[in-house]
Records
---
Amino acid sequence: MLRMLVPVDGSANSDRAVKYVIDLAKRLKSTEVLALNVQPAVSYVELMLGPKPSAVAPESERAGRDAARSACALLEDAGVAYTLQVEQGQPAETIGAFAKLRNCELIVMGTRGMGLIKTLAVGSVATKVIHLVDVPVTLVK
Amino acid sequence: MQQLLLPVDGSPSALRATKFLIRLIGGQPGAQVLLLNVQPAIMVKEISVNVTIEMTNQMHEQAGRDAISGAREVLDASAASCTEHLLVGDPAETIARFAKEEGVDGIVMGTRGLGSIKSLVLGSVATKVIHLVDVPVTLVK
């Protein structure tokens, strides 16, 4: 059993990462797929000062599900079982913490997500995630 | 048939990459591992004017064999089918060129090789390889 985490944000890059996960899930047969969308924290001040909210705000949950729609469609069309989680916070830190919390053994990421400088070989989120986690990370272009 | 490239340098990180690659293959029949070591070219003049081409070839070959031996043992103990490739040149460029020539489906490599500063998250070879290739690269710490 290989538990994989794929952070998704609706970008073409994240869809390619999802396709890689689908391919791996089909070949290995014994895998568990966790899709994660990270929504920004409500405000910076809130993030710095406020206690960590116990639940994701409903509007963020909705935005997260919207952002994950293409990834979910790909997984469903391929018949690969998955669970989707929406979290709030800084993208890389949240991905890293989630991977640890759920004992993920592999993180599959697009190298360049939405809003990042296109010319970078590896996006800043991916670079930071690699820094934060000890498990293998697959970078998909 | 799935072909995965495994560049190794004899480091603990490369050995962990080897073990993870075996998990990624998951006993699929027909998966092919291309085990690769790239030796930086020895400059003959740096050593002695008396060193012949044959001698440097031998040194490269011996260093290459030493570097892959650990990974080879791990692969032999698994069901994975593997071929050995010893090349000389700039590590990252040679890995990328070889990956393209062989048309591999992915690369699995350690993030910190022997030659890089230990505190770096991403070894310079891994960083350069990610930049140079289009196939998914799995980085193992």
---
Amino acid sequence: MTHTSADPDPRAAAAPLYGLILAGGSSFRMHRDKAALRYRGKGQLERAFELASRYVSMVFVSVRADQTTDPMRAQHPMIVDSVAGEGPIVGIRSALAAYPHVAWMVLACDLPFLSDAVLSQLLRERNAAGLATAFRSAHDGLPEPLCAVWEPAAGPLLQSYQDEGGACPRKFLIRHAVPLLEPLDRHALDNVNTPEEYAQALTALDTPSFQGHRMQLKVQYYALMREQAGRSEETLETSAATPADLYGELIARYGFTLTREQLKVAVNSEFSEWSRPLAAGDAVVFIPPVAGG
Amino acid sequence: MRFRFTQTAVDTDSARRELLDLGAGGYVSFEGWVRDHNEGQEVTRLEYEAFQELAVKEGERIVAEALRRFPVKHALCIHRIGTLALSDMAVWVGVSSVHRGEAFDACRFIIDEVKHRVPIWKKEYYRNGNSGWVNCERCTAAPLYDHAHAHAHDRDHDRDHDRDQDHDHDRDHEHEHRDEPAI
């Protein structure tokens, strides 16, 4: 039986974090504005904006100068491209330039499977002392720069990189050997570039096969946590991939005062690691500091 | 079952009989009692609860470890749950063996491990009307339960040092109901 060690605490010296939704792309292959694609009755820009708003105090939409009057974008705070160039690197650099002491949770607006589990993992494992925190692509093993946290320190280096002719934030992360997170859900960052991929995503989201992303779990509460949750057990639907993710969701819901580092966790009545993948129907118990005898 | 819970008072006579063995030359038992004070507060009663499915497995593992580690005949631990009054017995441990030394050692091992590993919680009710979950509420600013430490400890099968010193941080915050072993 082993336990994952306590997460390093980068918050002490971490820059404040804002959200940036990249919605300036030209959507050539889609033949229509990707930010306006609708999933489950909501435009993708809105979905990404709402998701990000749950984790950071301010969220902006990154736009090109010619998009500032678009009603869908203009209803949100915007950061207009302020540096020359093409592609997402321009949006990231413009945000870092606009607020030089802020770190940015950058999200592309063509990630329909983005979830709380993904963002809570990203923020939990954020390395505020580095240049960026990004996932490793489940498809090609390369960095995913558009669901990532970009730290203030990356600003000047991105500028040098662009000055030398670079344009690809993914290659920038490779060049600087930014350590990558292993995504808990390999499909969470699947993106949608073509009408065919959009149709597939709609099917995946709207059919029972999407149950792979959300599942039912049973959670039991004891002692202080039972009192704080106001219940001794419940069945809930969640996209949490691991007990660690689940505890993050439940802290937000119930305001538990015990930190994860103070707890152990059991799955199906046996001690478990925090990173164990959860399966539908699992019974999870968080174990506060014990006091038998 | 060598570890079990009871909702009512522990029947120590019948528990002791489970340890009888013609080859045993002695028997050691330990009783944990509800004390009337803790950390400067007057305690009036306690409530114990347990995650029983896991607790009985972990308790069984502890007793099995004790039997592997010490050459004793039999061992048993019974823990009370529910509401307990002052002087009620919260936990009972008994060990029979050929010679007394290993019986004392095994008994001490079992109660120490149970306190640190088995998912049991107790809520103290105080004279002034307050109440609180021991180890959970009064010191939440600093983690009380050092998991990495506790687990390094679990794997330390050869230790013979004093657990009280080893776990001094836990102990500082612990509600120690047993001032003097009842042996």
